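For consistency, the fold was encoded as tokens, as this record shows:
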Amino acid sequence: MIGMKITLLTVGPFEENSYLVIDEESNRAVLIDPGDEPDRLIAMVRESGATLDAIWLTHAHIDHIGGLAGVRRAYPVPVYMHPADRPVFDRGATQAAVYELPFEQPDPPDFELADGDILTLGDAQFHVMHTPGHAPGHVVFRNDRIVLGGDLLFAGSVGRTDLLLSDPDQMADSLVRICELDDETVVFPGHGPHTTIGRERATNPWVTGLAGIVPR
């Protein structure tokens, strides 16, 4: 990952991975999925010395947006999200109440993402892939052989599809699509350790049996 630094902070009771991605040439940064513990996330940004330009959301489940309101008080930067996840976003407080968790409903996102969009971070470019299934507006952000993958694909597992507005058929299609990327592509997921497309194609039991995924 020449020229790019990715810092991970695991936050909250769901142990969600929030990522600070820094373009080292320009020292500009984006924060991906500020899931909880905003004070820790703010400290991570400050300690990096980078200028935060934006917040990108892979999706709007509470464990991925729980720290958003707090972070935006310190850094009032624009928030990007796919519009299909707006119903999920809007019911954040209701969902948090189910788990008896504190939750501050954040202001709505500023910009809408769409499949095929290109987002810039300094001199780097990230391609937006709409990957619904776990959530209707789920996206991943791809730069060369790096994927910030949210809750699509994990090391040895995949995102749940038994949640409100989840769709198992869409999830299967999205997994097939991401597994078309090069085997060397590194996936930084929303939970757990990073992995590679090749490793998951070969060993992930939730992936290997999907129609359309051919062993390499």
Remarks:
- The radius of gyration is 16 Å.
